[in-house]
Write a structure and sequence with these properties.
By secondary structure, the chain is of the alpha/beta class. It has 16 helices and 15 strands. The protein has a domain of about 140 residues: Leucine-rich repeat, LRR (right-handed beta-alpha superhelix) (Alpha-Beta Horseshoe), CATH 3.80.10.10. The protein is about 35% helix and about 15% strand.
Length: about 425
């Protein structure tokens, strides 16, 4: 039982005892409103709606509870059109709606325009039945919409973006990843019409080319703070305009198979960059990375994935602000890892996947006073001897360890728990 809920129930018990009105059983319907609201917080929002059938007292409590609630989360619940309408009719004051994987239909836009006029945050990802009619309908009425996630809504086309760009002027976050029917021209038009757009995610939008990405950088320029793109069209010329986005803080680029070191160097112009994730660079030898780490001094998160041609000299990650490092399928040695540990003094999370290193490298990792989480994948079973396990247990900073291909005995698991280390 949650500590807060336990506190509310005990408090109600003491009050009733002082007033000498304590019955043999403390029933749920006799609890005070604060305690009932706390219980409601542990239930799914769709289940709270069913409690109105219990009695009149619960009905009144739910009406008051739903009128206060601002966030509605029905993720993963299969809801038909009628139940969605009833649910929104009770939560009329919500400003946030998360309805991922709810199997919503296009007709549900009618419920939103009736009872969801105050919604600013809307997450509709993985609702495959939603079409353009849905977004054309809500774009006219949801004028305050700021956050929209329609990831994997595969029936959405350019028409939706057209009306969203014309009507939702306050939009600052848009995720249209895996919307295969959307083309580059519609995204360019939206970036011109929406002045407040700061975050844009266009992963796996196959109809977007390199010229489109250049125009996005040109249109959004200093407004862009967060950008994510997975496209084989990303090349050196595509990143020539990224220097216009000098306020960029988060950059994810995947499938960069035509990107070279010259293109990577352009990223170093984004001085405010805090989070950098790059994946699949077959033509990159790593010369541009050192320039990024030299000029982007605010970096906190670095993910380098599937860069097989880089080496220790080209991946000198250093910086006082770096907290998370993930190196996956890169041709580096333990010397490079030791360099991270020595120069990233505030490093908290280290992930090493499919990397060659030895036991001495592991020992250096456990000696670090800052690293709290360690993840090691695809390593030899023989590397975890009793000596290494003892060293891991002696670490004062580690509190979470993920070890692949290692199946500890019950005694070893107990020792990790005694040292407050979670072993996965």
């Amino acid at each position: 039982m949650n500590n807060y809920l336990e506190f509310y129930i005990i408090d109600e018990f003491i009050k009733r005892k002082k007033q000498k009105i304590l019955s043999e059983k403390l029933e749920l319907i006799n609890l005070n409103k604060d305690c009932i609201y706390m219980i409601f917080n542990f239930l799914f929002d769709s289940d709270v709606n069913r409690l109105v059938l219990l009695n009149k007292s619960f009905n009144n409590s739910i009406i008051e509870y739903t009128s206060r609630k601002k966030n509605l989360n029905i993720t993963g619940k299969k809801i038909n059109d009628y139940n969605f309408y009833v649910l929104l009719s009770r939560y009329q004051n919500i400003t946030s709606l998360s309805a991922r994987m709810c199997d919503l239909s296009t007709l549900n836009y009618r419920s939103l325009i009736c009872y969801g006029l105050n919604i600013k945050y809307l997450n509709l990802s993985y609702n495959f039945k939603i079409t353009d009619e849905f977004f054309i309908g809500i774009s006219v009425f949801l004028k305050n919409l700021e956050y929209l996630n329609i990831n994997c809504c595969k029936n959405v086309t350019n028409q939706s973006l057209k009306y969203l760009g014309l009507n939702c002027k306050k939009l600052n976050y848009l995720n249209i990843s895996f919307c295969y029917k959307i083309t580059g021209k519609s995204i360019e038009a939206l970036t011109l019409n929406v002045d407040n757009l700061e975050s844009l995610h266009i992963d796996k939008c196959s109809r977007i080319n390199g010229l489109c990405i250049e125009n996005i950088f040109r249109n959004l320029n200093k407004k862009l703070h967060d950008f994510s793109c997975s496209s084989y069209y990303i090349n050196d010329s595509t990143l020539n305009k990224i220097n216009l986005c000098y306020n960029l803080e988060s950059l994810f680029l995947y499938d960069c198979i035509f990107l070279s070191d010259d293109g990577i160097e352009n990223i170093s112009n984004c001085k405010n960059l805090k989070e950098l994730k790059l994946k699949k660079g077959n033509s990159i030898f790593g010369k541009g990375f050192n320039k990024i780490f030299k000029h982007c001094t605010k970096l906190e998160v670095v993910y380098i994935i599937e860069f097989m041609k880089i080496n220790d000299k080209s991946l000198k990650i250093n910086g006082q602000n770096i907290k998370n490092i993930c190196i996956d399928r890169c041709n580096i040695s333990e010397n490079c890892i030791n360099y991270f540990i020595t120069n990233c003094v505030n490093l908290q999370n280290l992930e090493l996947k499919y990397i060659n290193y030895n036991k001495n490298c592991l020992i250096n990792i456990t000696k670090s006073t800052s690293i709290k989480e360690l993840s090691l994948l695809d390593i030899s079973k023989n590397i975890f001897t009793d000596d290494i396990i003892k060293i891991l247990l002696k670490s004062e900073s580690l509190n979470k360890i993920f070890l692949n291909n290692y199946f500890p005995k019950l005694e070893t698991q107990k020792k990790f728990r005694e040292n407050n280390i979670s072993l996965y």
